[in-house]
Design goal:
eleven-stranded mixed beta sheet; 284 residues; Rossmann fold; 35% helix; disordered N terminus; globular
Length: 284
């Protein structure tokens, strides 16, 4: 089995429309870039480039100053000294989704971080959110995508840059491989510099069929939970009951005609989750 996530995300793409909903997602992208000493590309799409478009980009230096990482009114070299490179990119085209897909096709990207708006029911089927359409289009490229709902508390504080990943929920099953799910979870924690998290492994189905998972339980606090019922509904219920900071979903794409109507389990969770959701592509 293979999960497409390198030990470190070195090139992170954050598409943004400059709305307040994007502020929280930007905080997650910036914090990840700093921890990994990576390159963060803040990507905006317009019909035609205008000089004023460049002035709309958020000031990364102001954010880092607020987080206490660089002095107030510091120049660009202070950001470079943190080991992170910030690039502001403007794509052109009538379709935001196609522009981002084209950019990901032409450039090596290790992770995409998207702000999302919750949607469910028939509205989600008829008109999926831009974030979902972006994720669908880049799915064949096997790029991990972190969805950050605009209404959630987040794993990264906009005000301080502090990372909070005390509790991670990882649904596990035999397909996709449960080992891939846990591996993805531990890699995500390492990527954000967290190593004190409590992991909840959730299996939907009979307890006797709980997948075997190899994990160093002397290092990690691990809880195993079994539920029966609709997978998406149970994942969301456990996440809410345990106040999860992050849900990690290993996804192998949609399966069957019911998923085509209702969306995959991952898509359903993304639409209604009250915390960020990391979707990790997997292939056997």
């Amino acid at each position: 089995m293979t999960v497409n996530m390198s030990d470190q995300a070195k090139v992170i793409l954050h598409p943004t429309d400059f709305s307040p909903a994007s502020d929280l997602a930007l905080a997650h992208a910036l914090r990840l870039a700093i921890t990994n000493q990576a390159e963060l590309r803040i990507f905006h799409v317009v019909d035609e480039v205008d000089e004023e478009d460049w002035t709309k980009f958020p000031s990364v230096r102001e954010i880092l100053s607020k987080w206490g990482m660089i002095p107030e009114n510091a120049d660009r070299s202070a950001v470079t000294a943190l080991g992170v490179n910030i690039e502001k990119v403007i794509g052109t085209g009538k379709s935001v989704v196609e522009s981002i897909e084209r950019y990901c096709t032409l450039n090596p990207i290790d992770m995409v971080i998207l702000a999302t708006e919750g949607r469910d029911g028939i509205a989600a089927w008829l008109k999926p959110s831009t974030s979902e359409r972006i994720a669908t289009q880049i799915a064949p490229m096997m790029i991990p995508v972190l969805f950050v709902p605009d209404h959630c508390k987040g794993c990264v504080s906009v005000e301080t840059g502090h990372v909070n990943m005390e509790h991670i929920l990882i649904p596990v099953d035999h397909e996709p491989d449960s080992g891939a799910a846990v591996d993805a979870g531990l890699r995500a924690l390492t990527a954000y510099g967290s190593n004190k998290s409590r992991l909840t492994l959730l299996h939907i189905g009979a307890g006797s069929k709980f997948p075997e998972v190899e994990i160093a339980e002397d290092t990690w606090k691990v809880q195993r939970v079994v539920r029966e019922g609709n997978p998406a509904a149970e994942i969301l219920a456990v996440a809410n009951e345990s106040d999860a900071d992050l849900i990690i979903m290993v996804t192998a794409g949609t399966h069957g005609w019911m998923d085509a109507i209702r969306g995959s389990t991952t898509e359903q969770v993304i639409r209604e989750a009250k915390c960020p959701v990391l979707a990790m592509p997997y292939f056997a």
